[in-house]
């Protein structure tokens, strides 16, 4: 039995008919596999973005229609996470920023959205006000997440913070309805 296996292995080693296919496989397999992993990473990112946008829109709809209900940052954050669905560690990695905007004297909002960086000390929420009736409000959210393949940086060029997490953003605006 052992000699049969040794003969078969010797024959396989000496046969050169499939050598060209093996070289093509060795060259193309990592490329095709990398494209596959990159597309999976982008799909998961897009799915997270859809969940975050859905949670934001449902929460904004609730806030807009229930102007008389005073809400806190924590309540709005919990509502976004609840309505978003499958966002891992949403309550710990989501940061909201809600500001009143004057449509007649519009000032550009800061381009850096407030995010949580777990590698740095905790900072308080900045720019969070509920506004009054007829106020134009802008709600911005930043969600931190761990990429599936953090060392390869396939797909999008995710900007990572000190803890290796990347950020995604969602922005929504609304007018507080009169009570």
Overview of the molecule:
The protein is of the alpha+beta class and 179 residues long. It has one domain (18-175). Helix content is 42%, strand content 16%. It is built from four helices and three strands. Strands 1-2-3 form a three-stranded antiparallel sheet. The chain is elongated. The termini are far apart. 15% of the residues are buried. The mean pLDDT is 80. The chain crosses the membrane at residues 20-40. Keywords: Membrane, Transmembrane, Transmembrane helix. This is TadE-like protein. It comes from Sulfitobacter marinus.
**What amount of the residues lies in strands?**
15-25%
Using the alpha-carbon principal axes, give the shape.
Answer: elongated
- What does the radius of gyration come to? 26 Å
Strand order of the largest sheet: 1-2-3
Task: Work out the helicity level.
Answer: 40-55%
Helix/sheet category: alpha+beta
| Low-confidence spans | none
The largest pleated sheet is described as: 3 strands, antiparallel
Q: Could you say how many structural domains there are in total?
A: 1
Number of strands: 3
Organism: Sulfitobacter marinus
Keywords: Membrane, Transmembrane, Transmembrane helix
Protein name: TadE-like protein
Topology, element by element:
Layout lengths: L1 H13 L4 H47 L7 H12 L5 H4 E8 L34 E10 L20 E10 L4
Antiparallel strand pairs: 1-2, 2-3
Helix pairs in contact: 2-3
Organism: Sulfitobacter marinus
Keywords: Membrane, Transmembrane, Transmembrane helix
Protein name: TadE-like protein
């Amino acid at each position: 039995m052992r000699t049969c296996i040794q003969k078969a292995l010797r024959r396989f080693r000496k046969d050169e008919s499939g050598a060209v296919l093996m070289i093509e496989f060795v060259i193309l397999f990592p490329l095709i596999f990398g494209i596959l992993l990159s597309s999976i990473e982008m799909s998961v990112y897009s799915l997270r973005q859809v969940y975050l946008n859905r949670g934001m829109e449902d929460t904004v709809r609730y806030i807009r229609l229930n102007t008389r209900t005073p809400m806190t940052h924590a309540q709005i954050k919990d509502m976004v996470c609840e309505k978003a669905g499958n966002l891992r560690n949403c309550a710990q990695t989501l940061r909201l920023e809600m500001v009143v905007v004057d449509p007649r004297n519009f000032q550009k909002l800061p381009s850096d959205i407030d995010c949580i960086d777990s590698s740095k000390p905790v900072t308080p929420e900045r720019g969070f006000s509920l506004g009054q009736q007829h106020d134009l409000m802008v709600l911005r959210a930043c969600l931190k997440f761990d990429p599936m393949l953090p060392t390869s940086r396939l797909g999008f060029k995710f900007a990572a913070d000190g803890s290796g997490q990347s950020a995604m953003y969602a922005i929504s605006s609304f007018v507080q309805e009169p009570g």
